Amino acid sequence: MLNNQGRPTRPNTSEQDNSATNTFTGNKALELETPLIFEQGVPGRLGVDMTEPKKVSSRLGNTARSKPIGLPDLSEPQVLRHFVRLSRQNYSIDSGFYPLGSCTMKHNPRINEKVARLAGLGDLHPMQPVSTVQGALELIDDLAHWLKTITGMPAVAMSPAAGAHGELCGVMAIRAAHEAKGEARKRILVPESAHGTNPATAALCGYKVESVPAREDGRMDLEAFSEKLGPDVAGVMLTNPNTCGLFENDVKKIADMVHEVGAYFYCDGANLNAILGRVRPGDLGVDAMHINLHKTFSTPHGGGGPGSGPVVLSEALAAFAPIPFVTHGENGFDLVEHVEGEASNSFGRMKAYHGQMGMFIRALAYMQSHGADGLRQIAEDAVLNANYIRVGLNDMLHSPFDGICMHEALFDDSSLKDTGVTTLDLAKAMIDEGYHPMTMYFPLVVHGAMLIEPTESESRETLDQFIGAMRYLLNKARDGEATYFAQAPHFAPRRRLDETGAARNPILRWTPEEDDPQSDRTLSAAS
């Protein structure tokens, strides 16, 4: 059956499920369908009146547009309803538990948002004269001070735009330090459980990447690492706690071994939330580490631009930090924006301006509202919550590595063997239970991996309900209901895709059924 939009009404094949009922509109009570915004447009239907612009001579020559742009004409209620309906189909940390491992999807306190919108902070422009933004520069300097204090590092680069950008900053600083000594080192060592951006960053900087295997306990094999070290190694890129949710117990020894051959230790700071206030990376021998403000310090994830990845640097790398950076002198705060003077060894500029100001404000508000004792408690509660989940599921899901985990619990798919249910199937069924699925198939060193990170934000009641839902689904899998899982999700706005077909033949652009040759109407549906 098709609804009045010509779309199937998402019938459910289960005869015992009342959701199989079709509706004329395609709506299911408060779950409302919405066509693509381009399909809703009617020529001449505009929510605003605009004055006809004066005719001017075009300077575009033969590059000028010859056809209408093809945007839909819509009334204001249409636009509002369209995006409200889409927003109801989103899953967010504000609507439910978000157990994505390695992502630290914690609550974003509203006080952070309020402060970020204060007049004088929320309306800054990056090209304002320095004399008019003394408060903003002081805020950047204050945040930089606390990042250095928390990590035990003497310097920090504030401009990197995100975690991977921060990795790039750290490796570029390492390369600049070697070049300053006249060394042309060729290799960077990366554990096999590393984030994929680690080897990608090293390769982008011109290094040959060599993978280091893990031991049976999930930590980097020190013997294999030692065999790979040599005078042509520029550094190591290690995540600690690592992507298996385990602390690298030999981290200080690893740092000493790296420094002994004249190389540098880059630490991926994605998992800083697990050791915040408990361990200072600088005390472990780290030379460079990015800090994901959107993870550890609770600034929003994603959205096309708000990422922020400051990089703390050791004394050995501090001189090579990128510009710009804030200085404080007799005449107040200033920005160093040129590779000269005190920045003469800098490897240059990474970003157009000075960093993500909105994220700086939110992160500093988060730090100051928690205080030193609160920041320490963040790590303690995050580790406690992860182990609560580990213990709550350990009799039904197999943990590939023995013992206590750090901030995230890791399971493999061996417990699903012979059930006909895969990690992906289980994740799809979690959607029906109202959960965003955990991180799947990562880290790659664990077969069918399920990586669950509750963060410190979640209450015991939330964790109990999540554990209960997982146990319910696992029992369902053991009871031979593989067909149920193969068809999940049953209640989502859209059923499961043919993912192979979608990947091989993606439809990336919307084209009207009757394409008007006078109009450029072929536009991205994602817009």
UniProtKB/TrEMBL annotation:
Residues 182-302 form the Aminotransferase class V domain. NCBIfam families: PRK04366.1 (NF003346). It comes from the Bacteria. Residues 380-478 form the Glycine dehydrogenase C-terminal domain. It catalyses: N(6)-[(R)-lipoyl]-L-lysyl-[glycine-cleavage complex H protein] + glycine + H(+) = N(6)-[(R)-S(8)-aminomethyldihydrolipoyl]-L-lysyl-[glycine-cleavage complex H protein] + CO2. InterPro entries: Aminotrans_V_dom, GDC-P_C, GDC_P, PyrdxlP-dep_Trfase, PyrdxlP-dep_Trfase_major, PyrdxlP-dep_Trfase_small. Its EC number is 1.4.4.2. SUPFAM superfamilies: PLP-dependent transferases. The glycine cleavage system catalyzes the degradation of glycine. The P protein binds the alpha-amino group of glycine through its pyridoxal phosphate cofactor; CO(2) is released and the remaining methylamine moiety is then transferred to the lipoamide cofactor of the H protein. It comes from Sneathiella marina. Pfam families: Aminotran_5, GcvP2_C. One of its GO terms (molecular function) is glycine dehydrogenase (decarboxylating) activity. Residues 1-22, 48-71, 500-527 are annotated as: Disordered. This is glycine dehydrogenase (aminomethyl-transferring). Keywords: Oxidoreductase, Pyridoxal phosphate.
